[in-house]
Amino acid sequence: MGVNIMFNFEVTGLADEAQTRSVLSALAELVAEEGLQEHEVALGWSLQDGQHWIAGETDHPIGISRFYAWRPHFEAAFHERVRALAPAATASVNWQYPDED
To answer: How far apart are CA 42 and CA 100, in angstroms?
Structure first.
């Protein structure tokens, strides 16, 4: 059974632009590997007050089959990629369930 979900994520505490771009590229690859399209998950980075950060979000609900199994897989892969390239960074994923509203 599928679930309609929306999510956003953020990575803060990145060292510099090179590390930020590296993590952003890894997360873009993850999104593609998971079958999510660019029009479904927007990704970007910014520099604010001397701090580099990455953000991403879905623009609309996405139907995910077997979400109960996919969510921990996606979260683990997300955190693993961030840790591998930016061990000091802080990363979070937040889920929304629009059908429950």
So the answer is: 23
